[in-house]
Specification:
By secondary structure, the protein is α/β, with parallel strands linked by helices. Among the domains are: 103-281, von Willebrand factor, type A domain (Rossmann fold, 3-Layer(aba) Sandwich), CATH 3.40.50.410; 484-623, Rossmann fold. 37% of the residues lie in helices and 27% in strands. The protein contains 19 helices and 22 strands. The strands form four sheets. Strands 2, 10, 12, 13, 15, 16 and 17 form a seven-stranded mixed β-sheet that branches. The chain has a six-stranded mixed β-sheet with strand order 6-5-4-7-8-9, with helices on both faces. Strand 8, helix 8 and strand 9 (257-262) form a beta-alpha-beta unit. It is globular.
């Protein structure tokens, strides 16, 4: 029964919806998972918020022309007429502006210096964090420093950062902090709010930042936070330490309307207090609504933001209370189509977006239609071909698997099921990373490997055996009886449909390569099939770069086709060729199967737009070509 459950989690995420929430808690659960795993601890089930895992990744949404932009992506370009699930990803992106051009900050830093903060990675990390923040804030910003243990006090009243002496004064006070006594969080927040009120202006970003492990007295504070949230003062929580109370942070953010972060390492510290400071403090728009109307389709599951679904499950509306400068929100929607009588391209959804600017004026974006190609083939390609959808759903499945692992581990002495779940998901994440040619899931893979070591010891497996199991990365083919030509037809059809949806431009087709120096007949077979399919682009809006020119550039750069698997090198070559898009492909022979995938790389943005793949069993036909 355990194995059946794992299968459903991996291949049919639409079977169960996940809890959403309007609170902004970017990556808290994801960062906590990594931090605890490094210390040999499996994250508690109740801390795993799936929306936070989906929001932990940056999906490189296009920068909008106005304040807000919405992009829609589908998992595949082609779906079966005999009914099929499909995934839609909706990305809401706020305008990215230089930090220097944004509204002044009016911040109160409320620091927990109670006795519990002397533990590792707590007050010492807070000091480092605030040093980074002081290097980031501008001369026009206001900062106050409040501390609390059993009592709360203002060390530095709200002051404009206008000269080096002011920064140095704040640094000196921060460096002198030491841990002692109880923890009166409520009094600390009251003083912090008082300091923000003293400098309050509608033209400022007015916010309290609470830096804490979450342990202490906070009675009656929710009412206070709600009252000041209405007046335009929000409260955010930055968490530290192994025993950080994530539920406490969730409650405060619910009431205070701000954001929540967890500092898992110094790299994350740098992100939160420097690169992401604007996207967590400076509001851009409010009351965002994204309405999705489906045509001949039904909602199976959704998440990523608060939402409401109509009674027939054919329309739904997502809501985001506040979007900050340069920030983004990601919504995932799983739909199912009833059987169709005819093949061809059809519109399947209409997406309409509205929001309020900071002056309260309601704005609307142009509606966007979503279309798909309906074909006779069942499951034309293996896995998702859109790179953004692939990342998001992989992260969703990772979070669901963590729930399975943590829930079973906490309430059952049997560790075999969680071990198998971690093993299977690790193979899936390895395959995804291979297709994307990047290190997107390195942290998640490290967590799963650490979990396998923890669970392996509980089962009684010796460490060398666990490491040997970790090294197994082969995926099972989802369609075992489909002929090789049909697999390739489906792969290249998906690729062509993706290209037809892209803006016109110059296209460099690099062909397929294999790791190593061998060039078996299978590689020639795949390249010939690809050349025939891509020849259909002739006369279209794409100008195909001559292959001789590509070979010349590769010689000049001392590169081989196989080097173009790495996106950075591929983009470099694409720019030399003056190409807008680069099409690369890889064939990987494994013990029981062959993985063939192709990427479309946007040369200007370095974003992988598509990563379609097929997984082919090594039958007699395939083995004869290897």
């Amino acid at each position: 029964m355990k194995r059946l459950l794992v299968f459903v989690v991996f291949l049919s995420w639409s079977v169960s919806a996940w809890a959403g929430g309007a609170r902004e808690q970017k990556a808290v659960a994801s960062d906590r998972t990594q931090y605890l795993a490094a210390q040999g601890v499996i994250i508690p089930y109740q801390e795993i918020k799936i929306d936070e895992f989906i929001g932990a990744l940056d999906y490189d949404y296009p920068d909008p022309d106005g304040e807000l932009g919405v992009s829609i992506y589908t998992g595949h370009e082609q779906v079966s007429v005999r009914s099929q699930h499909e995934t839609l990803l909706i990305g809401v992106q706020g305008k990215r502006r230089p930090f220097q051009d944004l509204l002044p900050l009016n911040l109160a830093l409320v620091v927990d210096k109670s006795g519990s903060m002397r533990e590792p990675d707590k007050l010492d990390w807070i000091k480092e964090s605030l040093t980074i923040l002081l290097d980031t804030v501008r001369d026009k910003d206001y900062v106050a420093l409040v501390v609390f243990d059993e009592q709360a006090r203002v060390l530095v009243p709200s002051v404009r950062i206008g000269d080096p002496e002011t920064r140095e004064r704040l640094r000196t006070e921060i460096e002198a902090l030491s841990s002692e006594g109880g923890s009166n969080i409520a009094e600390g927040l009251k003083l912090g709010i008082r300091e923000v009120v003293a400098r309050f202006s509608p033209g400022y970003a007015n916010r309290v930042l609470l830096l804490t492990d979450g342990w202490g007295r906070a009675e009656g504070v929710r009412k206070l936070l709600k009252e000041h949230r209405v007046r335009g003062i929000e409260v955010s929580v930055i968490g530290y330490g192994k025993n950080f109370d994530a539920h406490f942070a969730e409650e405060l953010v619910d009431a205070g309307g701000g954001s929540s972060r967890f500092i898992s390492d110094r790299e994350r510290m740098q992100e939160v207090f420097a690169a992401e400071l604007a996207s967590s403090t400076v509001a851009l728009v409010r009351d965002v609504e994204v309405k999705v109307s489906l045509k001949a389709a039904t909602v199976m599951a959704t998440g990523g933001a608060d939402h409401r679904i109509n009674d027939t499950r054919t329309a739904l509306t997502y809501t985001v209370s506040t979007l900050h400068s340069g920030d983004y929100e990601t919504m995932l929607l799983d739909v199912t189509f009833p059987p169709k009588k005819q093949t061809g391209r059809r519109t399947v959804a209409l997406v309409e977006t509205s929001f309020s600017d900071l002056q309260g004026v309601r704005q609307r974006l142009e509606p966007v239609e979503v279309a798909l190609e309906f074909v006779e083939t069942d499951n034309p390609v293996a896995g998702f071909s859109d790179a953004r959808v692939l990342r998001a759903v992989t992260m969703l499945q990772y979070a669901q698997a963590l729930q399975e692992i943590s829930g079973t581990y906490a309430y059952s002495p049997q560790a075999y099921g969680p071990f198998f779940t971690a093993f299977q998901l690790r193979k899936q994440l390895t395959n995804t990373r291979l297709r994307l040619g990047e290190n997107t899931f390195d942290d998640e893979l490290a967590v799963l490997e650490q979990y396998m070591r923890i669970l392996g010891r509980q089962i009684g497996l010796k460490d060398p055996i666990v490491e040997q199991i970790i090294a197994d990365e082969e995926m099972a083919p989802p369609e075992k009886n489909r002929p090789l030509p049909e697999h390739l037809d489906n792969l290249f059809r998906e690729l062509l449909l993706r290209l037809k949806e892209a803006p016109s431009g110059n296209l460099a087709v690099c062909g397929f390569s294999m790791p190593g120096s061998e060039t078996p007949s299978l590689l020639d077979y795949v390249n010939e099939a690809g050349a025939m399919q891509l020849a259909k682009l002739a006369g279209s809006e794409f100008t195909v770069v001559e292959r001789s020119r590509l070979d010349e550039v590769l010689r000049e750069q001392e590169l081989a086709l196989s080097d173009l698997v790495e996106p950075g090198r591929a983009v470099r070559v694409g720019k030399i060729l003056a190409a807008d898009y680069l099409v690369t492909g890889t064939v990987i022979a494994m013990s029981e199967s062959v993985v063939i995938f192709s990427r479309i790389i946007n040369v200007e943005t370095a974003v992988i737009e598509s990563a379609a793949q097929v997984i082919i069993p090594r039958n007699e036909e395939v083995n004869s070509l290897l």
